[in-house]
Amino acid sequence: MIQTKAALLSLFATLVFSHANYETLNKNPKYHSYKDQNSPDFSLLEQPSLEDMWGPFWAYQGIQSFAHLPVQNCLTIDKNNKEIERFDIALIGVPFDTATSFRPGTRFGPQAIRAASQRQDKWRGFNFRAGVNPLDDWANIIDCGDIPVTPMDNTLALKQMQLAYKQLLSLPGNTSSVPKYMSLGGDHSILLPILQGLYEVYGEITVIHFDSHLDTWAPDKYPSFWSSNTSEFTHGSMLWLAHKHGLIAPENNLHVGLRTRISGNGWDDFREDDEVGFKRILADAILDDNGLQKIAANILETLPKNKPVYISVDIDVLDPSAAPGTGTIEAGGFTTRELIHMIRKMKGLNIVGADVVEVSPSYDQSDITTTAASQIAYELMTLMVEAGPVTEKQLVKHNAAKIESGEDLRLTALDRIIQEERDYQLKMLFN
User: How many CB atoms lie within 10 A of CB 61?
Assistant: First the structure.
């Protein structure tokens, strides 16, 4: 009996202490407004607004934007309209998957990643790894919806994506001179029009590419007699095309997490990858002593500190146990925790954009892949916030270089691909 009383007293003391601590928190002052109305000493200085009563919602409620962010169709914004609400960072979905070489389905990736992000919001968005709440800091962050990419014609789809990013990157930012975009794929080919748009703003982009595959394969590495100009545009050749048309830096681009088989009986793929300007960190490097720390250090040693850097994350960089929902899984990848650690170590770089691609929900189990993708997107946005606003100085430097060199044909690289394909199709149609 004495032990029971002692236990009850201990529990009571714990509850009192916990309540006292809770009272010191910055909690919602109107939380008890409805419950306490029956109290004799109840007093409410002002009537609750409709927003107080019906605005807040639980994680599983409301429209499924990413992390419950405000939604706006950014592609319909008139940049000359001074009345528009400007933003600094935005999510943009690119539901395109008809440039895949194996299992399709990533057109459903953006919506699935948004659904998996519903437990994220600015009220509980503090990133304990970074010490900042990216959803409630200097940057006005919104969800821009999706680019309405056609699934019927890759030539047209490429043109749509090219023009969409040109439009998005022409918009003025709120605090930032130009907004930064977190793209949700879609297959990995969407990276090519993204780099096209970024090149027009920043010049050559240094790419860090988290992937189990090289994606620098020349189109003739694919085993088919049939080809066209547009068939060269795939989720495994887009970095080769970006290099061919001068959109990325000629050196010090970086692959992280490689573990796929390569072509033929030798190292030709790696030698060609060297020519495209990439260095490689294999997934097996994590098995070395202090492997994770060495990978992070290698990333920082390779990437430039004062040039624009783009982070592209193919979800298949993760092991299939951590991300089964993708089109071309490869055994032996990273865990989600390891990837997040590498991302966090890139604080201080000039991050101008990022993506998470190749999420194919139909192959997922219990939302494992989409949950990982939504967390990675959150970590990447944290990096963008930590990097601070884009300044006019960053843009002026690139514009001055363009003036000195005259007209730069790289600005129309994708237009040439598209026009050549159209000419080819007409020739085949009428001859």
Answer: 10
Strand 278-282: give its sheet, edge to edge: 141-146, 89-94, 180-185, 351-357, 309-314, 206-210, 253-258, 278-282
CA distance 12 to 244: 71
Domains and CATH numbers, the chain: 66-393 (3.40.800.10)
pTM of the model: 0.85
- The 10s digit of each residue's pLDDT in 248-296 is 999 999 999 999 998 888 999 999 999 999 999 999 999 999 999 999 9
Distance in angstroms (rounded) separating the CA atoms of residues 200 and 44: 56
Q: Closest Cα to residue 355, out of 125, 160, 103, 147?
A: 147
**Element (H or E) spanning 277, and its range?**
none
Helices (H), 210-351: 238-244, 268-276, 291-302, 336-344
State how far the alpha carbon of 2 is from the alpha carbons of 6, 10, 12, 215, in Å.
Answer: 6, 12, 15, 71
**Looking at this protein, which amino acid is placed at residue 195?**
L
Q: Which residue has the higher pLDDT, 422 or 164?
A: 164
DSSP lists the bridge partners of residue 288 as none
User: Phi/psi at 329 (nearest 5 deg)?
Assistant: -70, 145
Contact 121, 371 (CB under 8 A): no
Over the stretch 13-39, which tens digit does the pLDDT of each residue have? 544 444 444 444 455 665 555 655 666
Give dist(CA 417, CA 431) in Å, integer: 21
How much of the chain is helix, strand and coil, in % rounded to 5?
45, 15, 40
Question: CA 243 to CA 357: how far, in whole Å?
Answer: 20
Return the H-helix or E-strand segment holding 214. none
Per-residue pLDDT of 182-234, as tens digits, reads: 999 999 999 999 999 999 999 999 999 999 999 998 887 777 777 777 778 88
Q: Are 106 and 369 in contact (CB under 8 A)?
A: no
Find, among 94, 86, 81, the residue nearest to 70 by Cα. 86
